[in-house]
Amino acid sequence: MTTRTDCLERDAQDPLAVLRDEFDLPAGVIYLDGNSLGARPKAALARAQQVMAQEWGHDLIRSWNSAGWFEMPKRLGNLLAPLIGAADGEVVVTDTTSVNLFKALAAALTMQATDPKRTGRRVIVTERSNFPTDIYMAQGLTSWLDRGYSLRLIDSPDQLRSVVDGETAVVMLTHVNYRSGYQYDMQATSALAHAAGALMVWDLAHSAGAVPVALNADGADLAVGCTYKYLNGGPGAPAFIWVPKRHQESFRQPLSGWWGHAAPFAMVPDFKPADGIARALCGTQPIVSLALVECGLDLHRKTDMAAIRTKSLALTDLFIELVEARCAAHPLGLVTPRDHAQRGSHVSFTHPHGYAVMQALIARGVIGDYREPAIMRFGFTPLYTSYADVWDAVEILRDILDRQDYNVDAKRDAVT
Ligand SMILES: *Cc1c(COP(=O)(O)O)cnc(C)c1O
Fold first, then answer.
1. Is this structure's pTM higher than 0.85?
2. CB crowding 382-391: b at 16 or more within 10 Å, else e
């Protein structure tokens, strides 16, 4: 059985341990919710002050050029690209994940509809357990298009093979499921979609910065994702969209705002899409928030995804081992796959009073979150989570469960 001393020993040997000091984490908190809102890089405070005081306050409108505001979506996209196996000029940081998914899906449907060998495909395949906004955005798009498109929802990954067929235009999946932590095999799944003549759109919300992703090598077609989770970009920070070089020419998205125009300052009345990834942009970006994304990306440049993945698996393995050993008397059910290849960077356990137990954990400084139905979710961010954190969090969980120190009538917050 692993002891707390073993955990301290592992922290002493951990090559990523030094990076924890780059984050401002409050004392007395074990933060296991970086999969929902990443912690704040210390550098973000000074960067925010620079944008507010110097770039906005002093330089005013000149900053669109002098501070590189206008180029920021592309510049940050290039910094993010290596983390997801994308090339230079294939990613922009912009808008929200929901909005980018809308653009990606619309573009993918258009690519299919304009390909003489692929026309007539009217089905988008996704997963019932996908994060709801992904399903909602697809529903909004298809009902608004009103051209007979429909959604086909699978109930488990193994249904894909039988559901993806000659009617399928697009397979749209979240690479790491927000609730279960299940990770798809990107290469095999993309190949399955392609074999049926469908395009493969990935949502990397719980993957970017958490697990190695090789979009180009694994044959993905389009992808979107979040910067405020494992990339520590800040609350509501702009998301990203990836369009590989081979699809950029045929990528047409309906949110054809002036930032996606070939000549935004020509102010002509007709839309003409920019060459390259810029055509994925729409309009003016929230620069203060966008600027902070760089602080999170900078920290990723001090390590690499292989080191992050090694530690992520070690942390999640340790958490599963300790919960199952130390809380064995309690009705906890592991939802997350044990198989490393199928696991992201968070671990979910069910408990009949999951909501109340999570509230008790949070009251004692262990911040995870709760997702219906009955699921307690614990995110592990290798950049700032230590092995001792894992031990201490499980010890507090054990104590709460042993003493039934939770309120089953706890009132639910609007946002949890
Ligand atoms: C977090 C998350 C989102 C968030 O979308 P927003 O537009 O930023 O609200 C979308 N999809 C998935 C799968 C997520 O996990």
1. yes
2. bbbbbbbbbb
Ligand 1: residue of 135, 224, 226, 232 to mutate (most ligand atoms within 8 A of CB) is 226
What is the helix (H) or strand (E) element at residue 288, kind and residue range? helix 287-300
Distance CA 372, CA 355 (A): 9
Neighbours of 169 (CB within 10 A): 24
H/E run at residue 202: strand 199-203
142 CA distance to ligand 1 centroid (A)? 19
Task: Please state, in angstroms and rounded to a whole number, the distance separating the CA atoms of residues 154 and 172.
Answer: 11
Assess whether the previous peptide bond of 373 is cis (omega < 30° from 0). yes
CA separation for the pair 56, 43 (Å, rounded) = 18
Write down the catalytic residue from 33, 95, 134, 203.
203
Q: What would you report as the CA-atom Rg of the chain, rounded to the nearest whole angstrom?
A: 22
Q: List phi, psi (to 5°) of 202.
A: -110, 140
SS3 content of the chain, % helix, strand, coil (to 5): 45, 15, 40
Residue nearest to ligand 1 atom 14, measured at CA:
205
Site to substitute for ligand 1 among 131, 173, 206, 241, most atoms within 8 A of C-beta: 131
Phi, psi of 225 (to 5 degrees): 180, 180
Tens of pLDDT, residue by residue over 147-202, are 999 999 999 999 999 999 999 999 999 999 999 999 999 999 999 999 999 999 99
Largest CA distance in the chain: 70
Q: Could you give the CA distance from residue 230 to residue 35 in angstroms, rounded to a whole number?
A: 6
Separation between Cα atoms, residue 55 and residue 67, nearest integer Å:
7
* Segment holding 398, helix H or strand E: helix 387-402
